[in-house]
Specification:
The protein is α/β, with parallel strands linked by helices and about 425 residues long. Among the domains are: about 220 residues, no CATH class; about 55 residues. It is about 25% helix and about 35% strand. The protein contains ten helices and 20 strands. The chain has a ten-stranded mixed β-sheet with strand order 2-1-5-8-10-12-14-16-18-20, with helices on one face. It is globular and about 70 Å long. The two termini are about 35 Å apart.
């Protein structure tokens, strides 16, 4: 597979790859990194629970033109807009921007919401200043692969002091993308005192199709910036999804993340947060729902490199069938990061005897004046509340569904945007009832 990718990168580079001269060395260095390390294996500690051999041997070609999909209609996309077609919306079909499906209402002066490829071609200075600076190629082989073949994705820039009133939707749609490699690259730069909400969705219009999504997002917060970021992964359950989100925070900034994973045969998301100054707050929430043979992996890392910073992390999982979940959360506290307050929790509910969880919350603390806690639980429904529900005449299956919903809904309450939270609540009900 690596040989095939080397040939593909050679063709991609010989065709110019598109873009200005400054982008070529970034791509080249990234592919050199990937060619050196190759795909991760079970011998790599960070990947030993994620069976990526199906991706490595899948024959996905990032430079191969995708088959021409049937025309995706606006009506088909509306189901993913949370009831608000008037919100700013960027739609990408099989990794490429589709202006006919996107909406760009009048925004405050200086706010840019558009295609990354178009911003690169236009020579937007913010893109050149930030692209590739945070999601380093050496972080993961898949990040290197994405950078090597970067072409298109979302570019959002909010200038200093501006508040974007409505959430910005980034919708990545797969349609008839069998055996395709889709590699969107997103860059979000929110300057000082600015505020924005993002809803980043990965969805499919062809359930059961097999393809590979390798997505990378760089989110940059200036001093006192405020970002609320929901990431929804609803890929085909025959597809593969690898995601990497790198967050870079300046002084007094606030980042709030919610991640939902319910699609993909194998789905992994790395969320890394870098705190670059004092008085920073990061809130990370996640929910994953698995069934059948699905594998869902969440890896998070929060770097407390300065004093007086707070982080709160809670991830919950509901597993059924013979599915498997992985959670690995790391909190690093450097010697100068005194007065750090960090909490990390992972809780998992197993609905079947065949489901399995590998959970590993970690704290690496090198400062002495801190408050840091972590914990993890794995178990089945408690017999006592189930007995109570049955004694009140609630049928067993309905009682189980009610208790499972209560377990998962706690973390859903942390979604900041009301209408997004309501739609995710509907999706949760549908999944638990088997109607999705």
């Amino acid at each position: 597979m690596t040989d095939l990718l080397t040939e593909a990168f050679g063709r991609f580079s010989s065709n110019g790859g598109g873009g200005p001269s400054w982008l070529a060395p970034i791509r080249r260095e990234a592919f050199t990194r990937f060619a050196t390390v190759g795909f991760p294996t079970a011998r790599d500690e960070e990947w030993r629970f994620t069976p990526v051999i199906a991706i490595a041997q899948g024959g996905f070609r990032p430079d191969q033109p995708l088959p021409k999909a049937a025309r995706v209609t606006r009506e088909a996309v509306e189901q993913f807009t949370f009831g608000h077609s008037e919100w700013p919306r960027l739609v990408f079909v099989n990794g490429r921007f589709d202006p006919d499906l996107s909406t760009s209402p009048t925004l405050a002066e200086g706010v840019h919401v558009g295609s990354l490829a178009q911003a690169i071609d236009a020579g937007h200075p913010v893109v050149e200043a930030h692209l590739g600076r945070y999601a380093k190629a050496e972080t993961t082989p898949f990040a290197a692969l994405n950078t090597a073949f970067v072409v298109d994705g979302a570019f959002v820039h909010v200038p200093k002091g501006v508040t974007v009133p409505d959430p910005i939707q980034l919708v990545f749609v797969s349609s008839e993308a069998t055996d395709a490699a889709i590699q969107p690259r997103n860059l979000v730069v929110v300057e000082g005192d600015a505020r924005v909400s993002l809803v980043e969705s990965y969805v499919t219009l062809t359930p059961g199709s097999r393809y590979f999504t390798n997505a990378v997002s760089e989110v940059v917060l200036g001093a006192q910036a405020w970002v609320e970021h929901s990431r929804i992964q609803r890929e085909s359950e025959a597809a593969f999804h690898i995601g990497f989100t790198q967050v870079d925070q300046a002084r007094d900034s606030h980042y709030r993340s919610f991640t939902l994973a319910m699609g993909g045969a194998i789905a992994r998301h790395n969320l890394h947060v870098q705190m670059n100054d004092s008085n920073i707050e990061s809130l990370l929430y996640g929910l994953y729902l698995t069934r059948g043979q699905q594998v869902v992996d969440n890896h998070t890392a929060i770097h407390h490199d300065h004093p007086h910073c707070n982080s709160w992390e809670m991830y919950k999982g509901v597993l059924d069938g013979r599915s498997r979940a992985v959670f690995n959360g790391k909190v690093f506290v450097t010697p100068i990061a005194q007065k750090t307050d960090a909490k990390q929790t992972n809780r998992n509910l197993l609905l079947s005897d065949g489901a399995r969880v590998d959970t590993k919350p970690q704290l690496e603390i090198f400062a002495d004046d801190v408050r840091c806690t972590h914990g993890a639980t794995v178990g089945q429904l408690d017999d006592l509340p189930l007995f109570y529900a049955l004694s009140r005449g609630i049928p067993r299956e309905a009682a189980k569904q009610l208790l499972t919903y209560a377990f998962a809904a706690e973390v859903l309450e942390e979604v900041a945007v009301d209408d997004v939270r309501a739609e995710l609540d509907r999706l949760l009900h549908a999944r638990l009832a088997g109607h999705d």
